[in-house]
């Protein structure tokens, strides 16, 4: 009987976590687009990359700082 209660409690806890977290998982809608200036590159040649991120106004996009 005690084992059955533990199993039911674990199932209920898992279901509760799924319900609570599903809103946050579904709400995250992010689109990332990357474009390069040149389509043909020589090895070692530098180019510029343009990144565009579309996200909700409540979310924040953080880009890493890249050294040359």
Largest sheet: 2 strands, antiparallel
- The total strand number stands at 2
Q: Which range does the strand content fall in?
A: 15-25%
What gyration radius follows from the Cα positions, in whole Å? 23 Å
Distance between the termini: 65 Å
Helix content: 25-40%
Instruction: Give the helix/strand class.
Output: alpha+beta
| SSE pattern | HEE
- Our count of domains comes out at 1
- Sum up the overall morphology in one term: elongated
Number of continuous helical runs: 1
**Which strand order do you get reading across the main beta sheet?**
1-2
**Average pLDDT:** 75
Uncertain residue segments: none
Describe the structure.
The protein is built from one helix and two strands. It has 68 residues and is an alpha+beta fold. The chain has one domain. The longest helix is centred in the N-terminal third of the chain and has 26 residues, at 2-27. The model has no long low-confidence stretch (mean pLDDT 75).
């Amino acid at each position: 009987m005690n084992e059955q209660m533990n199993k039911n409690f674990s199932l209920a806890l898992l279901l509760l976590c799924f319900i609570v977290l599903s809103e946050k998982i579904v709400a995250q809608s992010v689109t990332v687009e990357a474009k390069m200036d040149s389509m043909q590159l020589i090895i070692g040649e530098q180019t510029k990359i343009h990144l565009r991120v579309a996200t909700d106004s409540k979310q924040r996009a953080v880009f890493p700082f890249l050294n040359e």
